[in-house]
């Protein structure tokens, strides 16, 4: 395992630990959001994520994780919140990497507003 991958896994795990402590007070979506979702202004990423949640544009990550725990069981090793285009519409999406019990990595894309799974890929 290369140093970069270990770093990404460590950052993902630390983010999850932070999420679990923030779930109770509604700050779960203050998680790291990818740099591609940053605006030109120098507003911190977590402020964009929190504002989107308060506007009703995204569900808290805790709700998304609860849904995925049933549909795609395994260990979540990375979460990103990004703004992307699907079917001609700009959407907030959660991109998750999940390590399954048999050692496969699943890349999951979820509509952050509806919770609908948009894409699921095996990343062998």
Structural class: alpha+beta
Instruction: Give average pLDDT, whole number.
Output: 75
The best one-word shape is globular
Give the tally of β-strands: 4
SSE succession: HHHEEEE
| Radius of gyration from CA coordinates | 14 Å
Per CATH, the class reads Alpha Beta
Quick overview of this protein structure:
The protein is of the alpha+beta class. The protein is 33% helix and 29% strand.
What does this structure look like?
This protein is an alpha+beta fold and 124 residues long. It has a single domain (3-122), classed as Nuclear Transport Factor 2, Chain: A (Roll), CATH 3.10.450.40. The protein contains 3 helices and 4 strands. Strands 1-2-3-4 form a 4-stranded antiparallel beta sheet. A hairpin with a 5-residue loop joins strand 2 (89-99) and strand 3. Residues 1-11 and 16-41 have low confidence and may be disordered. It comes from Allochromatium warmingii. This is PepSY domain-containing protein. Pfam families: PepSY (PF03413). InterPro entries: PepSY.
Give short descriptive properties of this protein.
alpha+beta, four-stranded antiparallel sheet, disordered N terminus, 4 strands, globular, Nuclear Transport Factor 2, Chain: A, 124 residues
